[in-house]
Structure formats: C-alpha cells, structure tokens
Amino acid sequence: MKTVAICAQKGGGGKTSIAVHLATAATHSGYAAAIIDLDPQQSAASWGDDRGDNPPEVISGQANRLHVLLEAAAKEGFDLVVIDTGPAADAAARRTAELADLVLIPCRPATFDLKAIRTTLHLVEATLKPAWVVLNAAPPRSRTVDEAIAVVRGLGAAVAPIVICNRAAFSHAVISGQTAEEFEPGGKAAGEIAKLWNWVRRELKIPAPQRTPD
User: Fold this and answer.
1) Are 3 and 99 in contact (CB under 8 A)?
2) In the CATH hierarchy, which fold is given to the domain comprising 2-204?
3) 43-64, pLDDT tens digit by residue?
C-alpha cells in the first residue's frame, strides 16, 4: 500500500480537491483507494457522504490515530491511501508526512500563498520524505505560473510537472460528490487530473492494478 499526504499550512490551497480527485482517479484506473480525512472541517468526508456508496472510501479520523487507520487500510487491501490534512504546520502534520510515501503541497500561484508554504516546506524537509509543490487553481495561459515556479524553486522546493488550472468543472463536480473526470469526461480539468495521477503513480512506483479499470 502506498500513502500520499496532502499538506499545506494555509487553507484555500485546494488540499481536499486534490485529495478526492487523486483517489477517484486511482479507483477509475483499477486500484482500491481510500481517503483519510484529518481536516477538522471534514470537507472530504462531506463529499464522500454526497457520493454515497461509490468509491473511493472516505474515512474520518484524527491525526493521533493515523497509524492505526493506515494499518487498518493495509489489512483491508487498499492499494493507495490519500490523506487530507488540516490547515496547520504542527506536530500532527509532521507525523502525517513521516508516515507518507509522498507529500504533495498544493499552492495557488499567488503572493500570499507562495509565502505561506515556507513553513510547510521546512516541516516536510525535516522528515526527509519526497515532497512536491502542486500549483493549483492557476490561471490558464499566464506568466503567473512561470513566476510561481521560479519562486518555489528559489525556496529550494520541487514543483510537480503538472499544473492544475482554475476550471469550472472542479467546483461544479464536487458539489454533487463527483470529480471533474466524472462531471465532464474528456474536459481539460479531467485531463489535468489524469496527468497528475499518472505522474503520482510513477513517482510511487505503483504496479499495474489487479482490478479491471472502470
């Protein structure tokens, strides 16, 4: 089982959106995926309620029990667990990063957001786990993205090669417990998530699924 932690100190960066889209993309690819929602706002859990019995499974939990939840997920045979963390850079966030195989740090390409990731970057660096900043809700076809990439790299951090743009399909989809891929198959938002998932899968070296994709 592989584990991805979605971490960021500042709220509004799109942690939950990235978490639910990655986990759902994994299920559509034939993997058994789950989301562990550690955010006190429980946005992922609410999305899961709207989704009903459709995978991925969403598990509500507390950071101090994360190791127990991960052990249970491994026993249940999940291939991938995506952890949606709360907006804080504290001991709980550090413990989450320590238990993950990969850490993704969503960040909007805006000045305040870019400044706010410094604390998260320092926290993750201390865990020695591979971490990447994912630029999210970016304006399409804008120099802002190139400038943000330069800022992140200037902080000594790695930037994921896939940029997620600000597209209406993302916000419309999650309202009804869907993802962009389900709401608008073949759309640009769906394509960006597919590329992000394929990149994450390669980074984690996840073998081919044993299940038939949707």
Assistant:
1) yes
2) Rossmann fold (3.40.50)
3) 999 999 999 999 999 999 998 9
